[in-house]
Request: fold
Amino acid sequence: MKFQDRSQIEALAKFKSQGDLVTSLYLTTDKGRLSRKEIQLAFKNLINDARARACALSASKDRIENLTRDLDRIASFGNQKLGTWNAEGLALFAASRKGFWEALELPHGPRDRVVFDANFYVRPLASILDKYSHICVLLISRREAVWYDVTLGEIKLLDKIQSDVPSRVREGGFEGTKQKKIERHIDAHLQDHYKKAARKTFALSKRGAFDWLFIGAEENHSGDLESHLHSYLADKIKARLHARASDPPAKVLEEVLAVEAKLKKAEEEEIVQKLIAELERGGLATSGLRDTIHRLNQFEVQTLVVRHNFSRSGRICPNHRFLYLDDLKCPVDDKKTEIVKDIIDEAIETVLKRGGTVKQIEPPTRLDRYGGIGAFLKYKA
Ligand SMILES: [Zn+2]
Reply:
């Protein structure tokens, strides 16, 4: 099933395991970055690691057996489907005893992980949703207007109208006042058409709120249309498209996705730029993995800014959950630290659990020159 909206997250979050542990798996299957072989290997390693962790859990034999059954089902799904899996990410949710099973195609690669918990782990789904905007596309010509909804890389026709605007043909014989009269008549029809389109756009926005409005208008008429739009909608216009009302949806989608990616990238680089400015003026910011996790251990991190897919192993204090790059013992309580596969993933979880924000930045990014990770810090009390 394709991952498409928040209702899917809510349904998973509502699932009642009634005391059982359940399994959630996330895997990046982005063929732009990884070969099929690499993806299959990553999956295998993830499952092996999860099996070892399940067996080491201090839970009843019965509960551990359930997890093992979840993992068996997940492994066989992967063996059958990964060879032809086309989405950029995979999420699996299994609760064997309850007979619950769900496989989601993700439009964006998540961080690889398997989580055992009393509830399904849905936070990566929410962060994927945040990466995408809910876009309304309005394509308008002299006689037609078409609305599309574009969300999570999918396009859906919302509505369509046709207006009876006479074409602008200049016929011989009409001169002076008569010519002007005809033009005024055509203009009135045209303005009517734009008004109708503007009203419909507002009605659609009330039915299903969208974040952005993209407009493609023929003959540079977008100004005419926009003058009729409700100010609430005028604020949502984020792009003017080349696409035309008569274009096939697939072509429209292609342009919309390219524009959306550009807008998102610009938003991300703005955050990076802000971070760099804060660093340069010696303000409330830090950068580099070592300093960032140190500040995190000090409870100072407000917003974590990290390159998407940045990953490396590290160590964690089992007692404090403090993170370290290489300390074998926690400097605070002298406890032996444990290895964690992905210290960035742990850092992200920690920030979110404490109510902070995480901004993941698509590479290439200027953040790379600052170690690929940094943070805005809290004001000290
Ligand atoms: Zn400790």
Notes: The chain has a mean pLDDT of 91. DSSP finds ten helices and 16 strands in the chain. The CA atoms of residues 151 and 298 lie 39 Å apart. The domain at 284-377 is CATH 3.30.1330.30 (60s Ribosomal Protein L30; Chain: A;).
